Amino acid sequence: MDIFNKYRDENGSFKESLLNDAWGLLGLYEAAHLRVWGEDTLDEALAFTTTLKSMVEHLEYPLAEKVTQALYGSTRKCLERLEARPFMSVYQEEASHSNVLLKFAKLDFNLVQSLYKKELSSISRWWKDLDFSELPFKRR
Fold first, then answer.
1. What is the pLDDT of residues 74-89, one digit of tens each?
2. Which helix (H) or strand (E) holds 9?
3. Lowest CB count within 10 Å: 7, 41, 115, 139, which one?
């Protein structure tokens, strides 16, 4: 992939200077999880970013938490709704966060959570109304 060539040295390896840039390594790590079979560049990028594991204990809070979450399970491979709440907690601690975006994300999260609760209540009520206790072929 040509886009990654600017991060490589003359030998074709990823530049050692990238090891000092935790944000850059995190971005490369997340990008590497978008790979498909046969993308050797992204396979190499994933192997190169394994140093993130040893960097976590030396990083400060919002970045350390993001790296920990990424190492636990890449955000590209998770269910967005399940990861939204922890992500919002970390995002609000970042100096560059947008208050409007954060407020909208929290509102959206709460609305969807409310919808899920209503649906679960409806399904539970429907299940109870079926009253399977009257079936003659049930196990005893």
1. 666 666 777 778 778 8
2. none
3. 139
